[in-house]
Design goal:
The complex is a heterodimer of chains A (108) and B (157). Chain A is of the alpha+beta class. Chain A contains four helices and three strands; from the N terminus they run αβααββα. The two termini of chain A are 19 Å apart. Chain B contains six helices and no strands. About 4% of the residues of chain B have low confidence. Classes of the chains: A alpha+beta (108), B mainly alpha (157).
């Protein structure tokens, strides 16, 4: 797994998780991740939107234009049924991966 | 599963066939993001101009991002191919001797092949016409029915 694959995979699972509870537009996804992570994870537009479009191309999420809380139009993303299954799969993969990395860093 | 496949195909076709509209939509999405960021800045207490400026500054590299998004949609392959083709043609035009050499080699190769095969074909026809019992066509493949010379034919083609 190349380093860029790792980062891309992590961003994917972060995005999928953030819209699991309710649909969100791109800005809200980045904001939510930043808030919940205590300002540690700050995702720039340059990474966020290519990831969102890739996930949409792969069929895990679907998009729809709607008006936001503030009345502005925004493109809301939600999980598809396949996306929900993919999220579960990626969460367990992530658990396994981070445990392995932690173990390696501690003992290597 | 099938629905997901259909969605994937629909989106990819859309990317290729209506790329202008997809780009316009990406543009609209980016602008919406910018507006939301400005709203947030204002809510945090910035004045409208400062809010806009701060949002724009945080926004950098939109063109690069559009390019990345386009890559993610997979039409970059075709764009790259046409661009490479145009570039190499332009390069060849700048070096006429190279172009001449390349064209000549290809022409000799193709032309030579055609010439040799025409001769072979002509020879085969000639042999076939004059073949009687026991006549042999020296260049043909070995005949399978050796024990029935009357029915044997030179296998020319």
């Amino acid at each position: 797994m190349r380093p860029s694959d790792l980062i891309q995979g992590t961003l994917d699972v972060l995005i999928l998780k953030s819209i699991a509870a309710e649909p969100k537009h791109g800005w809200a996804i980045a904001k939510r991740i930043q808030t919940v992570s205590g300002d540690v994870l700050q995702i720039k537009q340059g990474s966020l939107y290519p990831a969102l479009h890739r996930l949409e191309q792969q069929g895990w999420i679907k998009a729809e234009w709607r008006s936001s809380e503030t009345g502005r139009d925004a493109k809301f993303y939600s999980l598809t049924r396949a996306g929900r299954a993919q999220l579960t799969e990626e969460l367990s993969q992530w658990e396994r991966l981070s445990a392995a990395i932690r173990l390696t860093l501690r003992n290597a | 599963m099938l629905r997901r496949w259909l969605q994937m195909i629909r989106l990819r076709l859309r990317s290729v066939l209506r790329s202008a509209r997809v780009d316009a939509e990406l543009d609209r999405e980016m602008r919406a993001h910018l507006e939301l960021q400005i709203d947030e800045n204002v809510a945090r207490g910035m004045g409208p101009d400062e809010a806009r400026f701060a949002a724009l500054r945080a926004f950098g590299g939109v063109d690069q991002m559009k390019e990345e998004a386009r890559d993610a949609r997979g039409i970059a392959l075709i764009d790259n191919l046409t661009r490479d083709l145009r570039y190499s043609l332009r390069g060849l035009r700048r070096q006429p001797m190279l172009l001449l050499a390349a064209t000549t080699s290809i022409a000799l190769g193709v032309g030579g092949n055609i010439a040799v095969q025409s001769c072979q074909r002509a020879a085969a026809l000639r042999t076939r016409r004059t073949a009687g019992r026991g006549a042999r066509a020296h260049y043909s493949e070995p005949r399978q029915s050796r024990d029935i010379p009357a029915l044997a034919r030179p296998r020319g083609e």
